[in-house]
Amino acid sequence: MNRSGSTDPFIRNKREAIIAARSDKLGAKFAERAPRHDLEGSFPFENFDDLRESGYLKLTVPVSYGGEGASVYEMVLAQERLARGDGSTALAVGWHIGQILQLRLSGAWPKPLFERLCKDVVTEGVVINELASEPATGSPSRGGRPETTARSVPGGWRISGHKTFSTLSPILKQFVVTAGIEHSEKVGAFLVRSGPGVKVEETWNTMGMRATGSHDVLLEDVFVPEAEVIRGIDYEKPTNPVPTEGILLHIPACYMGIAYAARKFAIDFALHHQPNSLTVPIAELPNIQRHIAQIEVDYLTARSYLYQTADRWDNEVENRAALKTELGLAKYVVTNAALRIVDRAMRIVGGLSLSRTLPLERMYRDVRAGLHNPPMDDIVLTNLAHRAISEAEENRD
């Protein structure tokens, strides 16, 4: 037992215990709805009603604006526990709470605009996301210039373009759009509100994470007033930007939660499943125990590194820029461990694990999406190699 009275070593105090308990309660509800939304590929509106009513949507909103002011560690804890119930809902809402936390850390928005957003989240349960991916550019993490265009007009801008992977699109009343500024090499960011010229095209029909509502969003000559421009033609990148990459730990937290759910299901199954050819449950078999042990190695190692990295991010404020490689490594370690955990869980359960009446086949499909969330494995490995080579060269000199 730790100070919070919890058996989870990563719940360190009463506040964290309350955050975890809320996520556990919500996750239990979402687990019951997940099979239907996965089968239909439908958006879980009722889950977001529950998130709104529980106060979850204001988790990372500053306390001064009526939110809970959660740290990166607390966000990771909340997200991991939520994903134990439904990975799609956790990943989707993770972009919202992560975006709010990023804005809180960076101060990148004009203060009146951010204050209004926080008020909308707290009082109305508004959710937000940044739409940056496009058909021609793929993931924005690869650095492609958006083909979406912003054209200066009296009083503001006109935005036209096509965004993909627009998670939360069925319920976005406002969202950030990146766009290339016409007659310029610069890229701007604009707060767009749903309305005339904004169309959600329901294209999201994927193998996994089927209920995130990550459809295409089409923008046709959408007007954005000057007061809602986040970065415009006069924007100059800061020479020493405030590090905000820690917010991306909401991604591995989600896949860690899915892995936990698969682990729990498989171990429970092994404890109770006894074919008539055996005199004991399959949990007594050496081969099954070996699979369970290998799951535990991955689970304990990955989860420890995830929480250690989140804790370092929160506490090593002056060292955050140098932690970028560790953040990428946390995502790499967790998502790849989660893949192995779910795979071994299916081996324990056997052929039944392929049945849609059980949750493992959905978890297997969902967990694979982690490979395609940023940062990608190849970038993480390249960064690790560059750092090791650089350190070796410095030591040689």
Architecture overview:
Residues 132-222 form the Acyl-CoA oxidase/dehydrogenase middle domain. The protein is 48% helix and 13% strand. It has 397 residues and is an alpha+beta fold. It has three domains: 14-124, Orthogonal Bundle (Butyryl-Coa Dehydrogenase, subunit A, domain 1), CATH 1.10.540; 130-231, Butyryl-CoA Dehydrogenase, subunit A, domain 2 (Beta Barrel); 245-396, Up-down Bundle (Butyryl-CoA Dehydrogenase, subunit A, domain 3). Strands 1, 2, 3, 4, 5, 6, 7 and 8 form an eight-stranded mixed sheet that branches. The chain is globular. The model has no long low-confidence stretch (mean pLDDT 95).
Task: Give structural attributes.
about 400 residues; alpha+beta; Butyryl-Coa Dehydrogenase, subunit A, domain 1; Butyryl-CoA Dehydrogenase, subunit A, domain 2; Butyryl-CoA Dehydrogenase, subunit A, domain 3; 3 domains; eight-stranded mixed beta sheet; 10 helices; 8 strands
